[in-house]
Amino acid sequence: MELRTILKTPLGQLTRKLQVHPELHTGITYHCLSNQIIRDICVRGLVERNLPGYKDSFWRVVAQCTALLPEDKPRYVMGVGYPLDIVVCSALGADMYDCVYPTRTARFGTALVPEGLLKLKHKSMADDTRPIDPTCACMVCKNYTRAYIHCLVTKDAMGSQLLSYHNLYCMLPLQTKIIASFCEFCYIL
Ligand SMILES: [Zn+2]
C-alpha cells in the first residue's frame, strides 16, 4: 500500500471529526501525528537499515515534527520520559511529555537519585537509615529511611507508591531548570 493511501485514512478521519465536533478547534485536544500503521512502517524501515542505534533517529523525527508544527501551539511528545530525552526534545521545540518511566521504575523498587538509580531491593539497603536522597525535599525523603522502604518494596504496594512519589518529585526540578534556561536564553546542548 502506498504511503499516500495510508495517510489518507487518519487525516480523513480527523477532517470528519472536526466537521462533526467544531469545538475541538478551541478545546484542549491533542491530535497524534502518527497511527499504528505509519509507526510500524517507520520502525521496520529503521530496523531494515541496521543502524547502530535508534535514539538519534527518534530525535530526528521529533525535530522534523516540531519544525512543521506551529510554534504558538503546545507540542506534545507521547511516551517520552527519560531525562535525556526530555532535555533534547525540549531543545527541539517540544513542550509536553508523558511517560511511565518514574512510576514504572518505582514499581521495580528503584529510586531516581542525582547519581543515577538506587535499587531499594538490594540487601545493602536493609540497614541504611538515610533517606533515599538526602538532598531531596520530598515528603518521602523527609519521613522514611531506605531501610523502611527496603522492607516495604518486596511485600507491600505502599513501597512502590512511596518510590513513585519520590521519583515524580525528582522530575520536577528538571522541567523547572529547562524552563528557567529558556527564560535566560542559555539553553545549550
Ligand atoms: Zn525524595
Spatial gap, N to C terminus: 40 Å
Major sheet details: 2 strands, parallel
Task: Give helix and strand order, one letter per element, not per position.
Answer: HHHEHEHEEHHH
Whole-angstrom Rg: 21 Å
Strand content: 5-15%
Bound molecules: zinc ion
- Tally the helices: 8
Q: Which stretches of 5+ consecutive residues score pLDDT under 50? A: none
- Biggest sheet, spatial arrangement of strands: 1-2
DSSP helix fraction: 40-55%
Structural category: mainly alpha
- Please state the overall shape, judged from the principal axes of the Cα atoms: elongated
* Mean pLDDT across residues: 81
Your description of this structure?
- This protein is mainly alpha-helical.
- Among the domains are: 1-50, no CATH class; 101-171, no CATH class.
- It is 53% helix and 7% strand.
- It has a two-stranded parallel ribbon with strand order 1-2.
- Helix 7 (146-153) crosses helix 8 (157-183).
- The chain starts with a helix and ends in a 6-residue tail after the last helix.
- The mean pLDDT is 81.
- The structure holds zinc ion.
- The site of zinc ion (ZN) has 8 residues, from helix 6 and helix 8.
